[in-house]
Amino acid sequence: MDLATFNPVILFLALVQVVLALVEPPANVTLECHNMHNVLRWDYGQLVPGLRFRVNIRSMGSPPSESWVEPPAKQADVSFLSDPRNEYIISVTAVIGQNESNSAPPDSIEFSYFQDALSERKCSLDLPSVNVTTLHDGKMLVRFVHPWLLYKKKSKKLPVFRYMVEVVHQKTHTDPTDCEESVCEENVIVAASQEKHCVTVEGELEKMLVKTLRPVCAAPYEEPPSYLVHVWVVSVLLISSAVAFVLFMVYRKKTNAATSIPKFFKFAAKGMPERRELQEKIFVPEVVPCSPTLMDEEKDVTSFITPCDDSVLRMRCGVSAEADKGLSDSVEVTTDEGYTQGRDLEPDEPLEAPSGYEKRAVVVS
């Protein structure tokens, strides 16, 4: 066979090998670095078998490194590249077997969390949890959690966070303030004429830029409702009611001495017997003296002694009939039913010996 016959075939095979050696590079390579979360993304046309992506990493003062990504994934998490003391250069290469594409983007991507770095891309941290409160003395209280606690969960000692607070409408800012506490606070002077006060916070933490995403606003100060007037009104009403009640009781006592006590005062005396009931329960025995002459001790109970009948002649105790004979002669008896000392007894009734006590009839009830 002539060598010229094989020339087209050899040329075709050589062309195929050249085409296969040219691997398509990734397109639209972007980097998102924020809050120490870094993601590298890219696009690619047709995902052929054996295709892999290599992430090329270079840093200042460190040897080059790489990270591999298997399709169909077209992104890589590079959050470990967050040291603010370093600057990073990153790119992506498509690899098929022994062949690989050009790196994309051609100039690579330079980034760093160091706020004063020379890199084109500077990453920062957000300060989302800012609380703003308007005070009564023309000031505003700005409070937020130390940003290190948001991104570094475990820390024995908080680093210094130096920040400034800017009032948006006044275009003024406070002097730099250092915070090493878990909660940072700052009093900001604001204009009372403004209806709405908004601030932004920006600071430096371990050479990293920390700032609020957007202005944080607070409503104007409103005076709290005063309860002093209500207290005075209630106090005056109570005092007036007490004075009126006392005057009413005095008036009733003077106009009607027998006025009963109000019902709501009777609960204290509930269950206690009245004075009249106590008097009715007192029992004084009736005492009848044995002589017409009352003793001195018996003068106090004369009101409880039943007076003797005039027709009854009483003798003194301890005096015999003979000694009392002269006394009985001087007493004038007005009736026949007086004391006869046994002269009118029946013949068959036995005579009793004279006694110094008076004989009384038996009363059958």
CATH class of the domain at 3-122: Mainly Beta
Distance between the termini: 176 Å
Rg for CA atoms: 62 Å
Record field, number of beta strands:
19
Reading the helices and strands in chain order gives: HEEEEEEEEEEEEHEEEEEEEHHH
Flag low-confidence runs: 1-6, 276-280, 293-306, 308-313, 321-339
Largest sheet: 7 strands, mixed
CATH-assigned homologous superfamily of the domain at 3-122: Immunoglobulins
Tally of individual helices = 5
Secondary-structure content class = alpha+beta
- Beta-strand percent range: 25-35%
Shape: elongated
Estimate the helix proportion, in percent: 10-25%
CATH fold annotation of the domain at 3-122? Immunoglobulin-like
Mean pLDDT across the residues is 74
CATH architecture of the domain at 3-122: Sandwich
Pfam families: Tissue_fac
Protein name: Interferon gamma receptor 1-like
InterPro entries: FN3_dom (IPR003961), FN3_sf (IPR036116), Ig-like_fold (IPR013783), Type-II_Cytokine-TF_Rcpt (IPR050650)
Region (Disordered): 327-365
Give keywords.
365 residues; Immunoglobulin-like; 7-stranded mixed β-sheet; 6-stranded mixed β-sheet; elongated; transmembrane; FN3_dom
